[in-house]
């Protein structure tokens, strides 16, 4: 389900800074040769992540769910010199492609790609994060949030993607209450009721939950 009129979306993209040539290439190649290309953040959300990252000026970023590296490279644009972006994905088939894109980007030295289950890898990463982007399996969203919240510095941010879950969080757009939808709804309630953060659910694309640790 598209939340915004297609023409308005195109108009918004036409009045948004262009993605870099490399990001454009990743976007195109993902659509041509990788399964489920809709998972990629895309032009508009990518520019938003880049802008947020430039505003936050993070030294340490964590991403859960690399896919083809598009969102990681958008957020890397705001990294401080000497900063690091840690990104985790369980799909080893993407590794070579992603490493290639990272090397080509000019941020290669600052990108740390981990291949494996985020539930096992994230607890092993020793860092105080300024920005965390949760964008992997929905069923574990609350677990990921709880796993990282103590590793986020006060004033740091957690952003989670797909929190409107194609509208299925609303009964009128839902055929049945499947476990992913239930997990997204539980996550949204969990963050909203969490006294440790202030939050906004931003209806951009498939919904971004943005939480700032107090
Ligand atoms: C929506 S895609 C990420 C899209 C990417 N962040 C972007 O915007 O371009 C979700 C990714 O999460 C990964 N994933 C799913 N379960 C995971 C897990 N338990 N640990 C790590 N990665 C996982 C999938 O392999 C997939 O590549």
From TrEMBL:
The record's listing under InterPro entries reads: Cation-dep_OMT (IPR050362), SAM-dependent_MTases_sf (IPR029063), SAM_O-MeTrfase (IPR002935)
Q: What is the lineage of its organism?
A: Bacteria, Pseudomonadati, Bacteroidota, Cytophagia, Cytophagales
Q: Which domain of life is it from?
A: Bacteria
| Source organism | Pontibacter anaerobius
Q: Which key words tag this protein in UniProt?
A: Methyltransferase, S-adenosyl-L-methionine, Transferase
Keyword Zinc in record: no
Q: Has the keyword Nucleotide-binding been applied to this entry?
A: no
User: What is the protein name given in its UniProt record?
Assistant: O-methyltransferase
Q: Which PANTHER family match?
A: CAFFEOYL-COA O-METHYLTRANSFERASE 3-RELATED, O-METHYLTRANSFERASE-RELATED
Kindly name one Pfam family recorded for this protein. Methyltransf_3
Which residue spans traverse the membrane?
Answer: none
């Amino acid at each position: 389900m598209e939340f915004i009129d297609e023409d308005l979306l195109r108009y918004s993209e036409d009045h948004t800074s262009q993605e870099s040539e490399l990001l454009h290439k990743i976007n195109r190649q993902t659509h041509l040769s990788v399964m489920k290309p809709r998972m990629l953040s895309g032009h508009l959300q990518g520019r938003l992540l880049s802008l947020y990252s430039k505003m936050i000026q993070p030294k340490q970023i964590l991403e859960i769910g690399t896919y083809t590296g598009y969102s990681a490279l958008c957020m890397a644009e705001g990294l401080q010199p000497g900063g690091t972006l840690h990104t985790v994905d369980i799909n080893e088939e993407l590794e070579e492609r992603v490493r290639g894109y990272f090397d080509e980007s000019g941020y290669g030295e600052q990108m740390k790609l981990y291949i494996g289950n985020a539930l096992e890898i994230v607890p092993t990463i020793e860092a105080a994060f300024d920005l965390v982007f949760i964008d992997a399996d929905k069923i574990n969203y609350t677990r990921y949030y709880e796993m990282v919240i103590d590793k986020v510095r006060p004033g740091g941010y957690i952003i989670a993607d797909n929190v409107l879950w194609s509208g299925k969080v609303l009964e009128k757009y839902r055929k049945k209450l499947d476990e992913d939808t239930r997990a997204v709804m539980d996550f949204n309630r969990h963050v909203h009721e969490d006294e440790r953060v202030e939050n906004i659910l931003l209806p951009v694309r498939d919904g971004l939950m943005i939480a700032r640790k107090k």
